[in-house]
Design brief:
Number of strands: 17
Structural class: alpha/beta
Strand content: 15-25%
Radius of gyration: 26 Å
Distance between the termini: 48 Å
Shape: elongated
Number of helices: 18
Bound molecules: 5'-O-[(L-methionyl)-sulphamoyl]adenosine
Length: 511
């Protein structure tokens, strides 16, 4: 591969419950980016995984009469099955109970300790077990954790502290000098003001927790679960078991995370890396929140949209499309079944599904199922090609800004342009009037446009539909290896190819 390297990660999920649509949104966004980079010819490594050492996991396992390891072993295949159904194309799935991760965490902890940045102290304060975070009195709302509306626990224990305070200045300087380090801007501003208010040293181990990674020089303590979890971005790409791979991909190009966990990623993580003498990731992108009917989605409060329900009803591509189109990646958005069905019927069934179905039906009916050879282009044909060129470059710009929703709207403008081309050229009249060469040209142009849609535009968002369209166009491609390197501006489909028209891609939902 000749392109650049690209390393993208997501947050690793807690395993005390199965993921909901909010978690899926993050994995799908990262998958879109990974697939897009592969399509552009970049050598891409995409990491996701599970965060297994949490207090919630320990408690849940106990409730079920299992060891935490047995419990997490049982959860892994369930997560993997969901991500497979959603066609998440990760190169590796890291589990924090894996040996290579344990080794990496202990190595980094020791390095930071040897540097003099870890010392023993006494912690006394609030702890929310759902955030797995220490809270200050001023963080609480009516005595409750503001994120989980549960009462935090009062903890008093001896543990190790990290000298975060010492990194206030290096962190602010770094953020100032690297505007793309924290995105979007709203999150960057939050972090700048947080650092401006003054950082305190943080506790990085626990003595009262059994399920975790032992501190390498003190077996009576385990590494605080957030420090453990952040280090997955190193261990998952080979820090301790594949140095060649690690050298090739590190630093990460993008860590994709939710807006609730920016403090850990944009303050603690870079400070820890600075202390360990490891290069910082290029960008931390904090996406917004998926709400359900205007309310916060939650694992515990019964407000969840089951991924399985969405998949069973409409399939993986429809869910991927809906989430990426409806909820821009830099802000919150709302999931409702009404909006989902509206977009499904208008964008998928009417616009894309019909374009394919009508075009292939005409090729079957008028040209015996073979893609004809185009004749001399007319102005409408040139306009169609121009709009393709414009759409392709606009999509490129939107993708570089992580504006997936806008990229899809440019793709859909082109799809609508193709449907308009059918109305303008009225192939049924050309057939009636026996304008053979003109009809050949129009049918070829429609096929080539569909080829571009399926090969260059929708694969990152809707891999299943892209494959099906390419199959129906009669092309044989190794879908996992497609790359836009070397394609022609126009004329990629060979005339004479036999199409394989299938069932409609997106059967309309009848109310
Ligand atoms: N385990 C930590 C992350 C450690 S990363 C080193 C964690 N886990 S989580 O399971 O609670 O969340 C995983 C990811 O899902 C986070 O990025 C979180 O922001 C995201 N989301 C959880 N609910 C969400 C929505 N309703 N909407 C969008 N993203 C959501 O935090």
């Amino acid at each position: 591969m000749t392109g650049e390297k690209f390393y993208v990660t997501t947050a690793i999920d807690y395993v005390n419950d199965l993921p909901h649509v909010g978690h899926a949104y993050e994995k799908i966004g990262a998958d879109v980016l990974a697939r897009y980079n592969r399509l552009m010819g970049n050598d891409t490594f995409f990491l996701i995984g599970n965060d297994e050492h949490s207090l919630n996991v320990e408690r849940k396992a106990k409730e079920l009469g299992m060891s935490p390891q047995q419990y997490t072993d049982g959860m892994t295949p369930k997560f993997l099955e969901i991500w497979k159904k959603l066609e998440i194309s990760n190169n590796y799935f890291i589990r924090t109970s894996e040996q290579k991760h344990v080794k990496t965490v202990q190595e980094i902890f020791k390095r930071v300790y040897d540097k003099g940045d870890i010392y023993k102290g006494r912690y006394e304060g609030w702890y929310c077990r759902s955030c797995e975070a220490f809270l200050q009195e001023k963080d609480l709302v009516d005595g409750l954790c503001p994120n989980h509306q549960i009462e935090p626990e009062w903890i008093q224990e001896e543990n190790y502290f990290f000298r975060l305070k010492n990194y206030s200045k290096p962190l602010s300087d770094y953020i100032d000098a690297n505007p793309e380090f924290i995105e979007p801007q709203s999150r960057r501003n939050e972090i700048i003001s947080l650092i401006g208010m003054g950082l305190e040293d943080i506790s990085v181990s626990r003595s009262s927790v059994g399920w975790g990674i032992p501190v390498p020089f003190d077996n009576s303590q385990v590494v605080y679960v957030w420090i453990d979890a952040l280090i997955n971005y190193l261990s998952g790409v080979g820090y301790s078991d594949n140095s060649e791979q690690f050298k090739k991909y590190w630093p990460a190009d993008v860590h994709i995370i939710g807006k609730d966990i920016t403090r850990f990623h944009c303050v603690v993580w870079p400070a820890l890396l600075m202390s360990a003498g490891i290069e910082l990731p290029k960008t931390i992108w904090a996406h917004g929140w998926v709400n359900f009917g205007g309310k916060k989605l939650s694992k515990t409060h019964g407000r969840r949209v089951s991924i399985d329900e969405a998949l069973e009803k409409y399939g993986s591509d429809a869910l991927r499309y809906f989430l990426m189109r409806e909820i821009p990646f830099d802000r919150d958005g709302d999931f409702t079944w009404e909006k989902f069905e509206e977009r499904y019927n208008s964008d998928l069934a009417n616009d894309l599904g019909n374009l394919l179905y009508r075009s292939l039906t005409m090729i079957e009916k008028y040209r015996d199922g073979r893609i004809p050879s185009p004749g001399k282009p007319q102005s409408k044909d040139n306009e169609l090609q121009e709009s393709l060129g414009k759409a392709m470059s606009s999509v490129g710009v939107s993708m570089s800004l992580m504006n997936f929703s806008q990229a899809l709207s440019f793709i859909w403008e082109f799809i609508q342009r193709c449907n308009k081309y059918i109305e303008e050229t009225a192939p049924w009249n050309l057939h009636k009037e026996e304008k053979k060469e003109r009809l050949d040209t129009v049918l070829y142009n429609l096929s080539e446009s569909l080829w571009f849609i399926a090969y260059c535009m929708i694969p990152p968002f809707m891999p299943h539909s892209a494959r099906r369209i390419l199959e129906q166009l009669g092309t044989e491609v190794d879908f996992d290896k497609i790359s836009i390197k070397g394609i022609k501006d126009w004329g990629n489909l060979s005339p004479g190819t036999r199409i394989k028209k299938g069932e409609p891609l997106f059967p309309k939902i009848e109310k």
